[in-house]
Amino acid sequence: MLIDAAAELVEGLARGHHPTYGVGSMTCSIYDTAWISMITKVVGDQTEWLFPSSLTLILDQQHENGGWIGHGTETDVILNTAAAILALCKHRGESNTADLNDRISRATQFLDRELKAFWLDASTTLPVGFEMLLPKLLQLLAKEGINLEFPARAMLEKIRAMKMARVRLDKLYEGHKSTLLHSLEAFVGDVDFDRLSQHKQMGSMMASPASTAAYLMNCSTWDDEAEAYLQHVVLYGAGHGSGGVPSAFPSTYFEYTWVVATLLENGFTREDLGTESLEKIGQTLEGAFEAGSGFIGFDDTAKGITTLNLMGSPTPASKLVTLVDRKAKEAHFRTYAGERDASITTNCNCLTSLCASPDASQHVDVIEMAMRYLCNKWNTEPVGIRDKWVSLPCFQNSLDTNRSANWLPWSQHLSSLYPMMLMTQGLMSGLDSWGRGVLPNLPTEVVVDAVTVAHQIMGHLLRFQRDDGSWDGERECTAYAVIAITRIASLPTVKPILSHINAALERAKGFLRQYLNCDLEPEHLWIEKVTYGSRNLSQAFLLAAMKCTILPAPPRLQELVPPNLEATLKSAKLFRQLPMFSEVSTSRIDISLIESSLFVSRLRERCLEIFPGRTATKEKHLAYIPFTWVAGNELHGRPLGSHILLEMMVISALAYQVDEFIETSVSQLPPEAIARLHSELDTLFHLPATPPTTTPSLFSSIPLLGNLFTPPPTPLLATIKQTLSHFLTTISVLPYVQTAPPILQSNLRLQLKAYLSAHLTQMEYNHALSLQPNKHTLVSPPSPLYDWLHTTSGTHTAGPLAISLFQCLLSPFFIPTPKVQHLFNSISRHLSAICRIYNDLGSLNRDREENNVNAVNFPEFEGAVDIKEQMMGIAGVERKMLDLALKELEKELGGTKGGKVMKGLGVFVSSADVYGEMYVVRDMTPRVKQT
């Protein structure tokens, strides 16, 4: 049944191709329909409406609230309603004037409410051309007596002015190709339409019914070719004669390449799809490539190369290499010359195309570039990845052809699942090529990063699958997720959770199966000027999702399985005991553990960069530190990218290493030397940053040097100072620290000093406790317990230091005002106090054996019989204060960026809580102190 349906789909595409106008299945647009409904034509001595059925459709689609809702996006509603009101105004004066006036009045009131609720600032992402289209509609409505003012209008006009400052409309008269041609309705009254006829292609203005309508209404001489194009779109577009038209027609190359490639990539064979139909499609694509000198549009070129190679027609991808922007801060495939923001989906499609081409081995450097770019994009903005509002390149040389009548000038997607699917396809294509030996010189770090990103995408998708098996309750989105998960599931690192993945895929296919034989309106997930759907694409993704299966990976990919994976998975037993994960499924814990294992080697490398040497504790902490961050991130919906996660893992690991270094090396100094070191902490920031090579490091303990009170050789203190100085300096010059606001850099320096000072102070009081006959209660405590928890003891946990570094990482998203800094410090102190209490509870026996000062050694606990209950009570108070500070900070930050900071802080708090809960279950601190 699947094969028959796929063959029928492809055969329909091939059969439906018009020799002049191509093919297109994009759904109808109220916006474009409104524009063509305004066209009049003089016939004899009469002026007639060219498309009266279009007005009828507009009237039928008006909602009872007065507006034209479309498919629900805010900008859709505004553009649809504004264009429809303008169309009704143009038709006033006819026999039904009273009805039209009532409709216009209700629609205007509705639009006024929508505009007043429309929020806009300089960072708002708008659909393609919105900032040009809406101001013109408002201007034209004003001429009809409808004046609309709203808070966002000033910003809208400002954004339009900024765009127009970069536009040379007169260049259009010289034959210069531009995306402006797709939206000429935005320049009514601003350009001489009589001088634009040279830009017609098969009668259209860059495949846009609205733009073509504006041209036809505003040129002084009637253009039969433009009329013929619009008549064809009305009859053969998705409206099928109803009067409705799509936002773009035709979309031949877009639909040919997306449909055929999607089916062939996911289990269908050429024979399944019909060789005769594929031959027709192939001939059309090859002819287009030849006419375009190897190009048929940015995404269509990449997808076209992939399609032809999948169809068995070897097609090199060398033309794509010319699209690489190597001058950019981060090299990538550019969509068009002079673009401001790179397109993620374009880079995904180019990567997939390169890997599918017969000349892939000749472009290892470009494939590496694309994989790095995509991984970095995911690592800096996971889950929320959205593609740019893609627009048509300004054609140059051989690109200046008549291709625009057959490919989409731009198209974007509402769902983040779509770029996730494309990213999966691109990265997995690169990994597969590496595994097959096609890319033998691909750097290991790129390969590992790609595997990590693939796992993170899979983890995110699996988490947000609904109980009915779907994603977002939508057929097409569910198909994207199934295709992505199936592709990732071929990785050998996925094997431990394969049964869970198979169950998830079966549920998803069960959801999709019920729609296989249903002729439903496609979901409006794609974005042009307004949102749209495509029946052909929707059907292709549905069939591909039902057909795809997990295929075996090349044997070489087995090298990517971390050697510690099996041991890491065994730790699930410990984590399932923690309250935080009591309601988290075993599969989710396992997914986080697998992802965590992929960080271990990079974490070790980063630590070794700071302090070379060998660890004396078998790196046990490296086995669970990644999980605390990965799992915390997963619990909060993965707001933090891998870059931030890795940096925080490094700080967490170094905190353990510093603790070990202090206990195994610094502790060997006599008290007077420790006091001297304590007094000279400031000087450590100014010592040479070069790490010692034959001296103690955080990864090598110093041999014991006799009795603790015997003065050590002079070099020992110097080498300890050099090691600590290297630690301080390395942290201080981290790139994200150097780019943080000065106040955050200054605070970090203070926290670094306080952190080491806390360690030395703790040592001094440990020594004092060891000299007491009574080892249970400090005779001369340094302060009340409250102060100890919020200063020395809390700082000793490295929590305040970590949160200071975390602020530097998140500094692009907030302004460090005095109140914000105060709240961050409050959060830091309450959280570190909680961690210290949990730590002290878990290490109570060890601390007694080693004479380490514990919270229970303070006089407040003297005579207490319910120590654990009292300590948990104190932790509860600190938790309430922490929650209060978090709520206050959320209020203070506000906005979208503030939301990112708070989500990140949520991960930070959860990660800290994992440590605390682990300490209660098991003392995680290595017993390295010599007794």
UniProtKB/TrEMBL annotation:
One of its GO terms (molecular function) is terpene synthase activity. GO terms for biological process: diterpenoid biosynthetic process. Coiled coil: none annotated. Belongs to the terpene synthase family. This is Podospora anserina S mat+ genomic DNA chromosome 5, supercontig 1. It comes from Podospora anserina (strain S / ATCC MYA-4624 / DSM 980 / FGSC 10383) (Pleurage anserina).
